[in-house]
Amino acid sequence: MKVKICGVRTPAILDVAAEAGADYIGLIFFPKSPRHIEPEAARALVQRAEGKVKTVAVLVDPDDAAVDRVAKAVGPDFLQLHGGETPERAAAIKARSGLPIIKAISVEARSDAAKASAYRGIAELILFDAKADPAALLPGGNGVVFDWTALAGPSIERPFALSGGLTAANVGEAIAATHASVVDVSSGVERAPGDKDAGLVRDFISAAKSAEPDLKAKAS
User: Fold this and answer.
1) Looking at the DSSP assignment, which residues form a beta bridge with residue 186?
2) In degrees rounded to 5, what are phi and psi of residue 182?
3) pLDDT at residue 135, as a whole number
4) Lower CB count within 10 Å: N or C terminus of the chain?
5) Whether the Cβ atoms of residue 61 and residue 29 lie closer than 8 Å to each other
6) With 50 as the cut, is the pLDDT of residue 218 above it?
């Protein structure tokens, strides 16, 4: 089981996540988000993370200038597209940046999850997240859980990542229900929006990693 701590903004939380066994950290480039980080600060975190944990730059419907700025000035390991990017746009961003792509798919019903098939072969990984309320300012990180049964059945290809309202208290249940290969958390390890809590980060990673044996038992 792999874990991504998203919305990391400080060296201290990066170090906590890496030491606790996180596989990825997410750096959010979306000014409306309380987790937004500027490229210069993000670059410092990418350099600090090298050899410890993979870095993921999260973008929302970026134009070419934004893609270039993040890919070149920040230098992450992955780009995560968390907006309404079409398969064609995702492929163009992948080619332009030279980086592997994670594509977020907003899910409310099984028909939403089925849209992921259009990105296979383009995205390195699909991330299923809860569909945001139309009035929400953010496309993700809203602490909302969706109906995990939307990911059941052979039409949902694996591996995939899961996000949306995950916490240390429910991540084991989420893994058992979905057989996700990666779990992604942001608001579930925060004291307040954008303010990560070291203890909650450690608890989440421990809970996710310890859920792996149950997942294997259910899959066998």
Assistant:
1) none
2) -135, 140
3) 55
4) C
5) no
6) no
115-152 confidence digits (pLDDT tens): 999 998 999 999 999 886 555 555 555 567 888 998 98
Using the structure block, give the residue that is written with the tokens 């995990």.
148
Contact between 28 and 38 (Cβ < 8 Å): no
Structure-token match 């859920």, residue found: 211
The CA distance from 51 to 54, in Å, is: 8
Question: pTM for the complete prediction?
Answer: 0.90
- Render pLDDT for 193-216 as a digit per residue (tens, 0 to 9): 999 999 999 999 999 999 864 444
Q: How many folded domains does the chain comprise?
A: 1
In whole angstroms, what is the distance from residue 155 CA to residue 93 CA?
26
CATH number where 172 lies: 3.20.20.70
Full domain range(s) for residue 30 = 2-219
Instruction: Determine contact, residues 187/33, Cβ cutoff 8 Å.
Output: no
* CA pair distance 196, 17, nearest whole angstrom: 10
Sequence-separated (6 or more) residues with CB below 8 Å from residue 23: 2, 3, 4, 53, 54, 182
Q: How far is it, in rounded angstroms, from Cα 105 to Cα 54? A: 21
Alpha-carbon distances, residue 175 vs 71, 119, 122, 206, 210 (angstroms): 31, 23, 25, 13, 11
